[in-house]
Amino acid sequence: AKAEKEIAASAFPPFPDDAQPEGDLDIPGLDPELVELFTEEGSELLDASDGALAALRAAPGDAEAVRELQRNLHTLKGGARVVGIASVGDLAHAMETLLEKIGDARRALEPVEVDSLERGFDRLHDMVERIRQGRAVAAPANAIERFNALADGRSIVVGTKPAREEKAKKPDEPAAPAPAPREAPRLGETE
């Protein structure tokens, strides 16, 4: 099954990398007890999501699988934000936004979206595990941009920039800031 997933994934643009820093998790004001509760609940939510992702891959129109993933991401996002771990909350929010658009039938579910969701959940698993181990996590700006593009129906550009931009940027310029998560559509939902 893993080999089939890898073969299928090779047909899509590669999922963007967001390098994780070395060192300890150092976010001011983190409560170790809340972090422990968050990582336990987050791991359970992500493990439960694996089954829904398998159902979605088998039946891309499975509305119940989409709703389950939305609920799990919403809960993970809320927990991350309460604890103060914005990077996990922001990625969960971007993924939730895509699922809301799919669930509301505003767009058809495409194979690249299923693949991206699987890789996004893998990234969330990795981030939650790093937090559990007390290791640093970086903002997943590239993954967030992938989900924003998919949610907006924009094409996914892989590792290329217009020549104008490449020439205009000087080597010592700082990297552009991470894209901000966008507001998810609300249907009588409270945060």
Task: Report on the architecture of this protein.
The N and C termini lie far apart (about 35 Å). The longest helix is centred in the first third of the chain and has 27 residues, at about 30-60. Mean pLDDT is about 80; it is low at about 1-10 and about 160-175. This protein has helices spanning about 1-10, 30-60, 65-85, 85-105, 110-130, 140-150, 165-170. The protein has about 190 residues and is mostly helical. Helix 4 (about 85-105) runs parallel beside helix 6 (about 140-150) and helix 5 (about 110-130) packs antiparallel against helix 6 (about 140-150). The chain is built from seven helices and no strands. About 60% of the residues lie in helices and about 0% in strands. The chain is globular and about 40 Å long.
Cα(first) to Cα(last) distance is 37 Å
Structural class designation: mainly alpha
Series of secondary-structure elements, N-terminal to C-terminal: HHHHHHH
Low-pLDDT sequence parts: 1-9, 160-177
Radius of gyration: 17 Å
Mean pLDDT: 81
Descriptive keywords:
mainly alpha; disordered N terminus; 7 helices; 191 residues
Task: Characterize this entry briefly.
Helix content is 60%, strand content 0%.
Architecture blueprint of SSEs:
Elements: H1 2-9, H2 32-58, H3 63-83, H4 86-103, H5 111-132, H6 141-152, H7 163-168
Helix pairs in contact: 2-3, 2-5, 3-4, 4-5, 4-6, 5-6
